[in-house]
From TrEMBL:
Transmembrane segments annotated in the record for this chain: none
NCBIfam families with a match to the protein in the record: pheT_bact (TIGR00472), YtpR (NF045760)
Gene name of the record: pheT
Record's subunit section: Tetramer of two alpha and two beta subunits.
Claim: Disulfide bond is one of the keywords in the record: no
Name recorded for this polypeptide: Phenylalanine--tRNA ligase beta subunit
The organism of origin for this protein: Ignavibacterium album (strain DSM 19864 / JCM 16511 / NBRC 101810 / Mat9-16)
Length: 800
């Protein structure tokens, strides 16, 4: 954003301050000055000269040999401009002058054999415009030899300021002046409104109706009658050209002037072109086309906020006006629009139309809803002055949804604690007052700050402290020469995650990173979703409740690209509501970090030494067990297997720590895969890394191999399907003698031949003693006892 120093001086006294000091203070306060153009330096040595004579160049048809008087002597200069003529006053660059456009120095030279001692300049060479059709011809009354900085008022300093998105209040000259007022403790002068109004009442001439009060809480309008649309006066054109704007006409130029003066975008309608002389603010109900001021046909999506008259659309709200109501040379009566629009609405429209303007740039970041009336009156006053019009009495101001100032308590001790040094109460009061923040309820310990509506970025006490710090100067924060810290072991929060990533990668898995936002139906597959208040689309309306939906979408994309064999994993956070009630605090939601493994397609290709093999449940189980071994939790986690399906899996397994499930996975059901257009089997396992991280691995210790032989026994029983493996295992260990050291499940079998709702589970039992060799009789006795007890406990039948 370009800011003119001379323009700034209309609102604040900057005497006795150097340009460097202003630049430094602005930058250190958060308004970074990226570039400084000092016109006195830029146009140094350029002077007014008079063309005494013009002759044709002897060796070039398009060149002229001119005799130029620079106020001291006549000089011969070669010129290629077609409009050079005797008697003209021109901008002359003597030898040694640096031309702004191109940054090259003028030297004595011979052009086609004829000597040239300087250069007659065009506007584009001086960066005054893009015009290169000919040289710049000055007023013939000007005196030769005068510096052009003096005769053309090229004595300004232009700042290029980078304004951060959270500071919409600084997108104007008064906004920057307000910061300088606080920094240098100097008064800010806001132009006063002094309008001589006619007897015609604005409310009787035009009317305003707001249908969408959410996206347009306020709309102010001022009417000016009997204007004469013509060229703007020099002072107005000069203000605009200094900051890179092209003057258009006196009415439009005033609206642009107000935009850069106070930061409020305005639009002027030809009142006689508004059907019914009425403004209606509403959304489009269907897609339609609209011709904007740049004569381009725009396709408006449904729901676009529009400014309409009684019959049609006349402007895209907050972005650009329409060609059907623009100001033209025959315009006599105008309506000035000064409104506040919802930033989200304007941002959405600007993005949909791929159209960004000075107005939309400010509305997207948030303008001041309290200044619309002042801006309209200020514009009406200036338009009346430069066009000879008369201002209708009163203002049409519809404010359906009032936006209040925020009250924030500021504690003095908190300021000292945060900044590390004490600022006096008087200095705090002064800074906040200069920034436009009203102070209420002052006492010894705190104050109540009433934050103006032009500062939407100030929401909390810490924001006020930041304002105090940046205005007081970050250089005032004392340097701490020594910091005492206790030497403690550094905790690397990423260590476990990095270890997991390395382990899974070493197994041959490829990492994927998916969007944490997903559609509501995807989120409801695996949890209780948290819905976004203002989603970009229905496909990204909820936070993910699991990594599953994103992983299946990745499988789908890979299949679409012809990749059918996949080993994928992802580490990411998942979010769930704890109940169906409205979310009031962070305690109403849960956030966990998960790990998901995906297997699909072939595990091995067909080869001369092996048959092709597809990933199956046992492939998944192998990787899961290998992972738990690598993180040394295999001896603390137990497995449960479920042969019946649930909402996601046809059959599945869980990993458990004590009574808590820390991982679940299996073969994904066909109907779930169909929802993602996946036509091949997919195996999934999802760990809760947040829980795994909390488990302390048992210390590894050496166990001496048994000196005496083991005796192995197997048996298989037919159980009811509801009986779980872990339940049987725990029962066996509780009933067996001390000689039984280990029990493992090695087979699960289901078949109609076993009976309905029945399954077979086969176990291996491992007997040994550290001090002697066991006999067959004592093992057989314990083994038979277990068969009897299992049969009675679970109503199980021993298989032959």
């Amino acid at each position: 954003m370009k800011i003119s120093l001379n323009w700034l001086k209309e609102y604040i006294d900057l005497s006795n301050l150097s340009t460097d000091e202003i630049v430094d203070k602005l930058t250190m306060s958060g308004l970074e000055v990226e570039d400084v153009i000092d016109e006195n330096q830029l146009y140094k040595n350029f002077i007014v000269a008079e063309v005494k004579s013009v002759a044709k160049h002897p060796n070039a048809d398009k060149l002229s040999v001119c005799e130029v008087y620079d106020g001291k002597e006549n000089l011969q200069v070669i010129c290629g401009a077609p409009n050079v003529a005797q008697g003209q006053k021109v901008v002359f660059a003597p030898i040694g002058t640096i031309i702004p456009n191109g940054n090259f120095q003028i030297k004595k030279a011979k052009i086609r054999g004829v000597e040239s001692n300087g250069m007659i300049c065009a506007e584009d060479e001086l960066l005054l415009s893009d015009d290169h059709s000919g040289i710049m011809v000055l007023n013939e009354k000007l005196e030769a030899g005068k510096p052009i900085t003096e005769v053309l008022n090229l004595n300004d300093v232009i700042f290029e300021i980078a304004v951060t998105p959270n500071r919409p209040d600084a997108l104007s000259h008064i906004g920057v002046a307000r910061d300088l007022s606080a920094i240098f403790n100097r008064d800010l002068h806001i132009p006063e409104i002094n309008i001589k109004e006619s007897k015609n009442k604005a409310s009787e001439i035009a009317s305003v109706e707001i249908i969408d009060i959410t996206n347009c809480p306020r709309y102010s309008a001022k009417v000016v009658l009997n204007v004469e649309v013509k060229e703007s006066p020099e002072w107005l054109k000069n203000r605009l050209t200094k900051i890179g704007l092209r003057p258009i006409n006196n009415v439009v130029d005033v609206t642009n002037f107000i935009l850069h003066e106070i930061g409020q975008p305005l639009h002027a309608f030809d009142l006689d072109l508004l059907e019914g002389k009425k403004i209606i603010v509403k959304n489009t109900t269907e897609e339609k086309e609209f011709v904007t001021l740049d004569s381009k046909v725009r396709k408006l999506p449904k729901g676009t906020l529009m400014i309409c008259d009684a019959k049609r659309e006349v402007a895209v709200a907050g972005v650009m006006g329409g060609e059907n109501s623009e100001i033209n040379p025959s315009t006599k009566n105008i309506l000035i629009e000064s409104a506040y629009f919802n930033p989200s609405s304007i941002r959405r429209t600007s993005k949909a139309l791929q159209l960004s303007t000075d107005s939309s740039y400010r509305f997207e970041r948030g303008t001041d809803p309290s200044i619309t009336k002042y801006a309209a009156e200020r514009a009406a006053q200036l338009i009346a002055e430069v066009s000879g019009g008369e201002v209708a009495e009163g203002i049409i101001d519809v404010y359906s949804k009032v936006i209040e100032r925020k009250d924030i308590t500021l504690r003095y001790q908190r300021v000292t604690k945060i900044l590390g040094y004490e600022i006096s109460k008087e200095k705090i009061h002064q800074i906040l007052h200069r920034l436009g923040i009203a102070l209420k309820d002052l006492d010894e310990n705190s104050l109540l700050a009433s934050v103006p509506t032009f500062r939407p970025d100030i929401e909390r006490e810490i924001d006020l402290i930041e304002e105090i710090a940046r205005v007081d100067g970050y250089d005032n924060i004392p340097v701490v020469p020594k910091i005492s810290i206790t030497l403690e072991q550094k905790v690397d929060q990423q260590k476990f995650e990095d270890e997991v990533r390395n382990i899974i990668s070493s197994f041959g898995f490829y990492e994927m990173i998916n969007n944490p936002l997903e559609s509501e139906w995807e989120a409801r597959l695996t949890g209780n979703p948290i819905t976004l208040a203002n989603p970009q689309s229905v496909e990204m309306s909820c936070l993910r409740t699991s990594l599953l939906a994103g992983a299946l979408n990745s499988v789908k994309r890979n299949l679409n690209f012809g990749v059918k064999d996949m080993m994928l994993f992802e580490i990411g956070n998942v979010f769930n509501k704890k109940s169906e009630s409205v979310i009031d605090t962070f305690d109403d939601i849960s956030e966990k970090q998960n790990l998901i493994l995906i297997l699909s397609g072939k595990e091995e290709e067909k080869s001369w030494h092996s048959q092709e093999k597809y990933f199956d449940f046992y492939s998944l189980k192998g990787f899961v067990n290998a992972f738990t071994r690598k993180i040394s939790l295999d001896n603390q986690l137990t497995d449960l297997y479920y042969s019946s399906e649930n909402e996601i899996y046809s059959y599945y397994q869980t990993k458990n720590f004590k009574s808590k499930v820390v991982g679940v996975g299996g073969k994904v059901k066909k109907d779930v895969l169909n929802k993602f257009d996946i036509n091949q089997d997919v195996l999934v396992f999802e760990f809760d890394l947040s829980e795994l991280k909390q488990i302390t691995p048992e210390a590894k210790k050496y166990i001496e191999p048994p000196k005496f032989p083991k005796i192995i026994r197997d048996f298989a029983f037919v159980f009811d399907k509801s009986i779980q493996y872990l339940e049987v295992k725990d029962f066996i260990l509780s009933k067996a003698s001390a000689l039984l050291k280990n029990v493992e499940l090695f087979d699960i079998f289901e078949s109609e031949s076993l009976g309905s709702d029945k399954k077979s589970m086969a176990f291996t039992l491992e007997y040994f003693d550290e001090s002697r060799t066991l006999t067959e009789d004592e093992v057989e006795k314990d083994f038979n006892y277990l068969i009897t007890e299992i049969s009675k406990k679970f109503n199980a039948k021993l298989r032959g």
